[in-house]
Write a structure and sequence with these properties.
The structure is a single chain. The protein has a single domain, classed as Homeodomain-like (Arc Repressor Mutant, subunit A, Orthogonal Bundle). 62% of the residues lie in helices and 6% in strands. It contains six helices and two strands, in the order H-H-H-H-H-H-E-E. A two-stranded antiparallel sheet has the order 1-2.
Length: 138
């Protein structure tokens, strides 16, 4: 069955607010009873909704910052707890490490321009008469 949800500024504001708080697009759309197909059509229709893609990208970027701040808060809390204990639970330590790794991975993948690995030392050479050569230099 086709989704009959109509575009509205209020709905878009709610979606952008959720994304800026680090909630995934899948969960956000489910919460607002909107299909990905419908939302994607809105994103692609730049003539009708010219600023939607930019708003979406900004909200996702804000969401990454929000998730990274959660990771920082978790680290701070764990360090503070460790200061008051003689021994820290190994399972908790691993869980915190995985949470931080996930936050870093999400940031790198979802906003590579800001958090991605710097490929400034990438050198590409070659022409139509020779093979393409890609070198990473240190």
């Amino acid at each position: 069955m086709a989704n009959k949800t109509k575009y509205s500024k209020e709905l878009i504001d709610l979606i952008m607010k959720d994304l800026a708080q680090g909630i995934s697009i899948k969960n956000t759309l489910k919460t607002h009873s909107l299909s990905w197909e419908c939302f994607r059509k809105w994103l692609l229709n730049v003539n009708k909704y010219p600023k939607l893609r930019e708003m979406y990208s900004q909200a996702k970027s804000d969401g990454i910052e929000y998730c990274l701040s959660d990771a920082q808060n978790l680290i701070n809390s764990a360090v503070e707890d460790a200061r008051h204990k003689e021994k820290v639970d190994l399972g908790s330590t691993h869980l915190i490490k995985e949470f931080i790794s996930l936050a870093k991975w999400r940031a790198e993948k979802l906003n590579a321009k800001v958090y991605g690995k710097n490929d400034a030392n990438l050198k590409i050479s070659g022409d139509s008469n020779s093979p393409l050569i890609v070198k990473w230099t240190s």
